[in-house]
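EI: anyone free to look at a 197-residue chain?
SC: sure, send it
EI:
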Amino acid sequence: NIWSNASILIIGKLGVILFFVLSGFLITYLLLMEEKNTNTISIRHFYIRRLLRIWPLYYLITILSLFVFPYIPFLELTNTLFTDEYSLIKIFLFIGFLPNLALILFSPVPYLSQSWSVGVEEQFYIFWPLTLWIAGKLKQNLLFLCFFFMMSSFFINIFWVQRFPTEIYFWPFGRFWELLVGSILAWAMLYKANIFL
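SC: here you go
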């Protein structure tokens, strides 16, 4: 099976890392540019933009995967959603934007499993804009904060990945370091800083 080939698996995992790094870079760069141009970050506008950009498609795919696709005969999906004793919890996790937690606790949902990475992103966005806003107001060193959070997440990953590989792979604090690498690169590019010297 080509999809179980070691090279394919490694490329897939590297692709996820690149996705998170690029996402962290883009969001942090846009927020820092806003702060540079207006001397503040509008948390409310940030969340409205994210809601309008991500939620409609996410909920469309979620509703189709949970309630429509299992009833389409040629897809040949086993509909266990309402026969599983944990069905309501699983539905709540997906509706509550916790698809990564659903994958840790339960079996995958066809056509919906890939949404775990969007869940990690959205969970990162809960605190990151507020962190940038507070850092700007208190004149704290943003680079120090990025490094602190990144290293904390990285060491959680390193120390626990052997013992809990599935949990660390999907758990947000095991992946935040990748988003924060992008955040550091955004800070360095915006302020023309060479962080490697």
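EI: The mean pLDDT is 83.
SC: 👍
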